[in-house]
Amino acid sequence: MSDLAIETQHLRRRFGEKLAVADLSLHVKRGEVFGFLGPNGAGKTTSLKMLLGLISPTAGRGMLLGRPLGDRRARARVGFLPEHFRFQDWLTGREFLRFHGRLYGLSGRALEDKADALITRMDLQDAASRAIKGYSKGMTQRIGLAQALLNDPEIVFLDEPTSGLDPLGRLLVRDVIHELKARGTSVFLNSHLLGEVEATCDRVVFMKQGRVVHELEMAAQPAGLEVDLRVEGANDALLTAHAQLLSRDGTTVRLRVEHEDALPALATALVREGAKLYAMTPHRRSLEATFLEVMGEDQRPG
Amino acid sequence: MNAFITIVHMTLHEAARRRILIATLIGALGFLLLYATGFHFIAKEIPHEAGPNVIKQRLLLNFFTLAGLYASHFLTLMSAVLLPLDTLAGEIASGVAQTVASKPVRRSTIVLGKWFAYCLVVVGYLLVVAGGVLLVARTMGGFTPPGLATGLPLMALEAVVLVSVSIAAGAHLTTVTTGVLAFGLYGLAFIGGWVEQIGSMTHNTPAQNVGTVASLIMPSEALWQRASYHMQPSIMRELVMTPFSPASLPSMAMVWWAWGYILVALLIGIRGFGRRAL
Lengths: 302, 278
Fold this sequence. Notes:
The structure holds two protein chains of two kinds.
Chain A: E1 4-15, E2 18-24, E3 27-29, E4 33-37, H1 44-52, E5 59-64, E6 67-68, H2 72-75, E7 78-81, H3 93-103, H4 108-121, H5 137-148, E8 155-159, H6 167-182, E9 186-190, H7 194-200, E10 203-208, E11 211-217, E12 225-232, H8 236-240, E13 244-249, E14 252-257, H9 262-272, E15 276-283, H10 287-295
Parallel strand pairs in A: 4-9, 4-10, 7-8, 8-9
Antiparallel strand pairs in A: 1-2, 1-3, 1-5, 5-6, 10-11, 12-14, 12-15, 13-14
Chain B: H1 2-17, H2 20-45, H3 53-82, H4 85-94, H5 96-101, H6 107-141, H7 148-170, H8 175-201, H9 205-217, H10 220-230, H11 234-239, H12 252-275
Helix pairs in contact in B: 1-6, 2-3, 2-6, 3-6, 3-7, 4-7, 4-8, 6-7, 6-12, 7-8, 7-10, 7-12, 8-9, 8-10
């Protein structure tokens, strides 16, 4: 079995004159939480739909869970929460889960038990017998998430899962992603919310004008970690012996070190030389800064 | 097969839950009430004694029963176009189709499941409305038209043709455009049918040909004419005494054409939904 959940080569999709996706070549490892970033109109949703078989590519090829894109056997092992959470809202929450569970091939006791467990996990016990059209947006998101997890999927696609939701709804998505990762499920997260991606993803790719333009391992520390210090009795010579001095304002100092591993040595050296170290705060470079740099000046809001 | 049954069940459930069925049934009952009232007053005026008036009595009852069946046919066709109108086009437009189509289900199963469910609804509706008309004629006039075993299945086939068109168009077009197209085709067949009948009466071959071409484009009216031909006594149809007595009987080939038409419409629907970007 391949250790890749998704592998695509030069996927392309054209809608008439418009080239929605120019070249999508990416791989997602099994068990990985994968972030898919880009401005509006970059082709993220079209890409995700090609991976799910909802849109057929104009050119290129790809595999999902070891099967060609669109293959039914692969779709049996996939969960999907679509953008905007548009569901059969005339169904009750429980009927909705039963219907989608049957489409996954579940039935009888197994289906009922699974639906019950997910209703409880999503805290929808009181609403399960009510029609979805009466649900709040957060509740609709939760029943949609439950639907995406009915088949204990090997990979879950989340398309803007927290768009327009309150902090509790966002936290739930974050928790569910952590739970999925803990059980080895891959997650493909398409999101605008960089903080959410930063908090959950192992790796992200940036898409721009229908192409993958940048890839980032979130676990790897970017070069040139900045550190804020509050320190007394440390002269510039002492500081520059261990790091690059960026700024100094009395006892507040900003340094840049090569790597996070350099921080203990810096602290030890300062204390050994008699300096009083009150605080040391490393600043990982924000994903937002990387995003803006990768997207460049030519990106206008779409 | 399980997925097919699930889609059929869900489509029927949707029709019931969204009050489509109840609204349709209320409309049908309203029609039957009006028809029964009219029949009651007309039946009172019809002479009941035996003798030379018997033929006149039978002809009047048959005419009024056929008028009821014609109205049933029209209401059924309206339902056949309108009820499935939104089932594919609406779900594609709203995005509901994405969640369903991402499941391990063939898209053809989704189309066929919805088609079959609406065929059940529409044929059921026909049985209620036409059955009601026949019940009224039987209880109030003591009359049952001949040829029901041939006529009613033809009416059902006509309804299935229009369900198929509505579903097939919905896989390609928006809800409104689907409705416009399906009703446009029905209108074309209706006018074409009349042109053919008048052409037959006046022995005008070009007019007859126009009607035949219209029936090939949409065979619904031809099926109704064949159905109505079977559901009236031979004297009425020989003399072309009423608007329901076709001057030229659409051939059996038109019935086979209708079956082929359904098959092609379904293939167009399956292909359209299968290729549609959801």
